[in-house]
Amino acid sequence: MSSLPPPPDIVRSAYAALVVTSLPEARRFWVDLLGFVVTDEDASSLYLRGYDELTHHNLILRSGPVAAAGALGFRVRSVADLSRAEEFYGALGCRTERVPAGFARGQGETVRAEDPLGFLVEFFAASAHPERLQQRYDLRRGAEVARLDHFNICVPDVPVAYEHYKSLGFGLSETIEDGRTLYAAWMYRKQTVHDVAFTGGAGPRLHHLGFFAHEPHSVLRMCDILGSLSLESCIERGPGRHGVSNAFYVYLRDPDGHRLEVYTSDYYTGDPDHPVLRWSVLDPRRRDFWGNAVIPSWYSEASAVLDLDGKPRPVIDIAQTAEVTVGADGFTVPAE
Amino acid sequence: MSSLPPPPDIVRSAYAALVVTSLPEARRFWVDLLGFVVTDEDASSLYLRGYDELTHHNLILRSGPVAAAGALGFRVRSVADLSRAEEFYGALGCRTERVPAGFARGQGETVRAEDPLGFLVEFFAASAHPERLQQRYDLRRGAEVARLDHFNICVPDVPVAYEHYKSLGFGLSETIEDGRTLYAAWMYRKQTVHDVAFTGGAGPRLHHLGFFAHEPHSVLRMCDILGSLSLESCIERGPGRHGVSNAFYVYLRDPDGHRLEVYTSDYYTGDPDHPVLRWSVLDPRRRDFWGNAVIPSWYSEASAVLDLDGKPRPVIDIAQTAEVTVGADGFTVPAE
Amino acid sequence: MSSLPPPPDIVRSAYAALVVTSLPEARRFWVDLLGFVVTDEDASSLYLRGYDELTHHNLILRSGPVAAAGALGFRVRSVADLSRAEEFYGALGCRTERVPAGFARGQGETVRAEDPLGFLVEFFAASAHPERLQQRYDLRRGAEVARLDHFNICVPDVPVAYEHYKSLGFGLSETIEDGRTLYAAWMYRKQTVHDVAFTGGAGPRLHHLGFFAHEPHSVLRMCDILGSLSLESCIERGPGRHGVSNAFYVYLRDPDGHRLEVYTSDYYTGDPDHPVLRWSVLDPRRRDFWGNAVIPSWYSEASAVLDLDGKPRPVIDIAQTAEVTVGADGFTVPAE
Amino acid sequence: MSSLPPPPDIVRSAYAALVVTSLPEARRFWVDLLGFVVTDEDASSLYLRGYDELTHHNLILRSGPVAAAGALGFRVRSVADLSRAEEFYGALGCRTERVPAGFARGQGETVRAEDPLGFLVEFFAASAHPERLQQRYDLRRGAEVARLDHFNICVPDVPVAYEHYKSLGFGLSETIEDGRTLYAAWMYRKQTVHDVAFTGGAGPRLHHLGFFAHEPHSVLRMCDILGSLSLESCIERGPGRHGVSNAFYVYLRDPDGHRLEVYTSDYYTGDPDHPVLRWSVLDPRRRDFWGNAVIPSWYSEASAVLDLDGKPRPVIDIAQTAEVTVGADGFTVPAE
């Protein structure tokens, strides 16, 4: 690793792209029900953001024949970091491409790469600034999402993912582990618990997108709205309090099965010697501080990811002991 | 008093009528901003209710040339109570009239009376049941008002008002007083702190309508929405915690200056020996538990009330020591 | 039924007695963790209440060799209702006894009865008034319970239980049913959704005691405290939103397995024509508005109840179709 | 400015020291009522922190004859930044001193300086890590403060203060201004709205310390506790929603008159092109989004600050137009 060129200076996780099979149904879910703000749109895409977001988008929904996760977008500090991204991933033997401003609406020149973990990642420095809506309480609806908070990805080998993101300059906030195995890890660039987390499992797959909301009330209200409309089956897990991160959360599934988390609370991690919090895989509170069992589908299901050509990446089986097989959460058999 | 006929069996405060000078502006305030549900309407009236309400209306807004408070509506237990109301008020020398079902939409036969305190009161037993919306969280907006909670009226002589409502079978929950004077009183039929409260002042005038909301969040959110739209001048007093009633509250003024309270929390008063809580007029916590001073307009301004013919009732000066002149809230001069 | 003497005028559910096998452990759970207020105590008993309660106790914990539920206590309107209780239950062929004031501390003369459903019920009119603590926010801890809200009991035959409480003058607020079967019912005297509810199952057993708290925050906080102390196994089900009652809830189990609910929200039911809300047994939202499955133990486990002599009542199997066997909640086999 | 040596790399505002005239009274206020955690103490000092804080202290209370604000402590990235601090302030002609680890308990070597604005500032890199208490919900009390958020200081000339902190690498998030005057500014190093804010006024004085809490509930609860104990006079202003920062807040005064803010919500400012939000001084929502007038004492009163020798700094009158004299908040006369 020591011979790698310097990584790009990543500011934070900024947006993700999802391929959805019905844009009208996706719009109903993400915009009408969850209350995401539409920054821009065209016939095949929706650009959405939270109420606090001051860049152009946190989520791009693109119409396509097969549901999948497209790119994970990271903001970098400056345009110079785009070349650093090309060199860094090039040195790792990864395919990259540079696309001009406007490749995604409202977004400057962008470097795209197939990362060593099998995910499509994108780096951009410049963004249009949309209207500031944070104090437009009259417009707020649904989960009142403020901004994207993190990506959670399924990887067959968690230590490999950890080393990769460590080489990108990410800090480590929390883990699930035991004496032999690292089952999951949470890593950050911005001063929160994470920008990216790894859940051990068949991968590469996108486990969920985490969106920040300001108050637990928003989590409860989102569930109440879904129940009101007999859409309670969209609620997969929670609400609950995480042990890891201490956040109050709920997991929802969109009409294509893409998973999102409405995530509140969190804590500051900006100090240079921020201590790592290590959870035992056998502590029933690590995934739910109140001891509620994780739903089997939450362990087994996730979104396929695409390569630079828009083709699904092959999924590789988990290469390590699975969290779900070691007696955690009362499961005694592998989830799938 | 002992020779009075039995009073009607009043269930609760149920609705009020307000005359507004612009129905479109009133609609924008009460419906679009505050989120009241429209049960019914015609060219000159709006019938509104809260999300929990299972009778036809909690508020009737009628278009008229001069802003005023019309009737205060009480639900009675049965149709037989309508005759009891006529006899009770007749024995007091009050004008009454009986109007047929439909006089107000969705409402059965009604007895109207000019009460001894100068207020127009209405009694009804039957109501249409509108659609149950309590669990339609997808529809909720604004202050998310559940139902009417109480009337607060200005009376020149608080003990007289207290005796009148006592004769109607109301219980007493709380007072503001000192060794010499009863400054204010809260009285109930339903099992809450009050259906009616008296504030000493020039009267008869309607001080405010209190509407119940389920969570403090609704009070804060309503203020945030008004601020978002630069309508913060509609917020007259609060948010705060009342000493009396322990409720978390805010007072708003509608475009005609009619005052309402969004009122949360409250407590159970249904036991037959429910103890009275008596506050000293000099306890700064009685009106705001956090010691925030009452706004002068809150003491001095209120809505004129109408008689059976729709004419404004003359206003009589306060006939007792005023709360605002005895050193409470830091005021040293009368508010008017 | 028509020849029954008039029933006692029941005001509300007021207290329950639980036999616990370790009073120190029970104290740690109910007082130290949940924050119940100790009104009084002796070597073998604790008298507890919520912060709003103005009678002497909502819960009596008594030390005993075997965990069980003792009496369910109802407040009646006047001392004359004690005789009515004796006559009413006597006419039903039930054993009754009258015990003097002080039989339970702080409580006036009391009539006890073994009711036709197999439960020990107690009726009292007079109570000592303890210190008013509602506005002592400095003392609040744990779940910040305000008062007892309701009893939920397991009965083999729900329609029989419904008819019995109907004969006692209880109103019906909500049901779970289908074209053939009444699976559960909620009935009230005070102006809330219920004072007593029936869950179909082996009985007589006490399913849970419901305690009212003012804010959803108290439910979440109670869970957080239990997680903090690695006592998350005390959390049996929830938090969640009920379809029935619309309340936000959590179910906890005490060290002897007695179940309680921390219950917030609720709605007004005081109007004489209050409409019944009937839920289909196949609506997954009826027990949890967000569709979360009911925990099997919640259906199968409950507390044995005692007779007038303190002996456990025999438990009779469910005599009707069980909610859990008709496809609700994804269960395909009887819970027991 | 261009010839200045590079500034120290400041991570965030970390702690403040206050001189209090009665340590037992201060302890009752900060620890018993507000719920600050005691990390350490000796006969003349208390070291306090919030529940999330992972360094040794956020607040040092020292006993002294005259109430005053001592140092404002900033954490720097590394030990090398201590020398940079000496050189930076030395180049500005400011007195500095370097004190060894342990000068404040739990804190590494520290550089102290009298800054050009007249404040005593301290820089440290190393800190002891106390026990992690974030998930000890069982211990939480009072305002449940998580960590120090910011310093708010009174300066006679806001643009001078702005330029000084700009030279230290602080970003600008929000301002209050008009075409001629900068009345107030909010500046940050960590990714929140501010680490330091300037209020135009006689100075140097400490206006308040801002402490972050996770939920609006904590603000309301703190006020309720103070009301419960008849200590409502400690509540100076609020609760309310700020226009600037969008935070939900309350201002309290300690027994020596030191002001603190319990501050919730806030937003992310970590992007390199984070846009500045500029408020008009005439917008009544800038200081309170709901239009509630600022309390006069909030504009006029503040804590004197000490120099390196522990002597109070002379206070210089405001050197620019005062916010309070330009028609904002309905004030028509200077507050002082």
Short summary:
Four copies of one chain form a homotetramer. Helix content of chain A is 15%, strand content 34%. Chain A has helices at 23-33, 80-91, 158-167, 216-228, 296-300, and strands at residues 10-20, 37-42, 45-49, 59-63, 68-76, 96-99, 110-114, 120-124, 145-155, 171-177, 182-188, 196-200, 205-213, 235-241, 248-253, 259-264, 277-280, 303-304.
Q: What's the number of structural domains of chain A?
A: 2
Largest interface, chains and sizes: A-D, 33 and 33 residues
Quote the average pLDDT of chain A.
95
CATH superfamily of the largest domain in chain A: 2,3-Dihydroxybiphenyl 1,2-Dioxygenase, domain 1
- The share of residues in extended strands of chain A comes to 25-35%
Whole-Å distance between the termini of chain A? Answer: 34 Å
Could you give the count of β-strands of chain A?
A: 18
Biggest sheet overview of chain A:
10 strands, mixed
- Which structural class fits the helix and strand makeup of chain A? alpha+beta
Q: In CATH's first tier, which class of the largest domain in chain A applies?
A: Alpha Beta
Radius of gyration of chain A: 19 Å
Number of separate helices of chain A? 5
Contiguous low-pLDDT stretches of chain A (5 residues minimum) are 332-336
- How are helices and strands ordered from N to C of chain A? EHEEEEHEEEEHEEEEHEEEEHE
Q: CATH topology of the largest domain in chain A, which one? A: 2,3-Dihydroxybiphenyl 1,2-Dioxygenase, domain 1
Subunit arrangement of the protein: homotetramer
Which outline of chain A best applies? globular
Helix content of chain A: 10-25%
CATH architectural arrangement of the largest domain in chain A:
Roll
